[in-house]
Structures are given as C-alpha cells and as structure tokens.
Amino acid sequence: MAMAVLIPCLIYLLFETSQLAQTYSMLQANFTRLGHVYNELKDNMNTVKHSYDSSNHTLTAVYKILNALVDRGYRACPRTWIKFQRICYHISRKLETWQEANTSCASQNATLVMVNSEAQQEFLASFDKGNRWIGLNNLQNIQSFRWVNGEPLVTGYWSSNEPDKSKAKRCVRKTVDGTWKSDQCDNRYSYICQIRSINYIIQLLNLPFPIESQL
Question: Is the pTM for the entire model greater than 0.70?
C-alpha cells in the first residue's frame, strides 16, 4: 500500500524537477540575452556620447567665430536696433506697464535692458533722453532689486533719494538724465529692450542655444 502511494509521488517529483530545470534553462537563456542587450545599449550610449561631444566641440568653435565677428564690428542686430559693444538695443515708443513692457521684449526674444557696466550706463544715458522702463524690479518683495534674469543688482545708478522705500514702487525706470527711479509698476512708460548680438545670430541661423561655457 505504501509503495502504491510512493510511486506516484516520485513520478510527480521527477516531473516537477524536469519543469524546474526547463524554467531554469529559459531564465538562464533570457539572462544571457539581456546581457547582450545591455552591452549593445552600452556601446550605443558610448557612440551617442562621442557624437554629442564632437557636435559640442563644433558648436563651441562656431560660437567663438561668431563672437569674433561681433567683436570686429559685424553689425549683428535686428533692423532699427542700435549696437553697443556686444549688445543690441531697441527703444519702443509704446507706453506700457512694466509687465507689459517685459512681455513685449520677451516676444522679440529679448529682455528689458540690464545695465551691468559703467560704459553701458554712459552709453544709454547719452544715447537716450527719455523716461523708459528698464529690467530692474523688486517684485519678489525682497531686500534688494534684481534684474529680469534673476541676477541681483551690483551697481546702481540711482537718482538722489532713490530707490524709494515705498512698497508701491517696485519697478525701475531710467530718467531723462540717465539715472534711475523706482516707480509704480502699473504706470505707463516706453521702454528699452536688449538682446546679445551673438544670440540674435544664433536665432537667425537656427542653432542650439549655447551654454555659458561655450561663449
């Protein structure tokens, strides 16, 4: 009686062992195939990285050539814009709030003007005698004014008794003598847009926008 029960159990165990062996073989084969796929993906990734590095080096060389052209006086600015050093400027005669002016400049792939040097300040003061919005603001309600690109103000060219400490005056305009005044952002003035010459060329040529290290 015991033998009659044992034999079917042995047969069942042999069958299960055979099935496990087949499953193991399949898993081992799949693992081997995955190894081959991984190696292929790794090789492809190295190829892509090499291509990217080569393209990156080529673009860096192109950007350096374009910068050299700008430095040697090539007039790379939109029509009616004025170039000083590496930057193009445009004075809009439209009267807009600060936010509207900021949006209008952005729609032209430009920004409200950002003054980062004394030479730039002197140029703008002599070139233009109007009240114009510039890209300086304190809309974030922090201790210091910042430019539209998020950079903090380093050197200010304020009028006397400026900036006004009033919380209502969070945007900045250039005055007729070139100095700056804080003002209510909803007031309407004309404004000055700027774009870097090389950025304008890059847009014309439909090139990828460079990172700072490539310029």
Answer: no
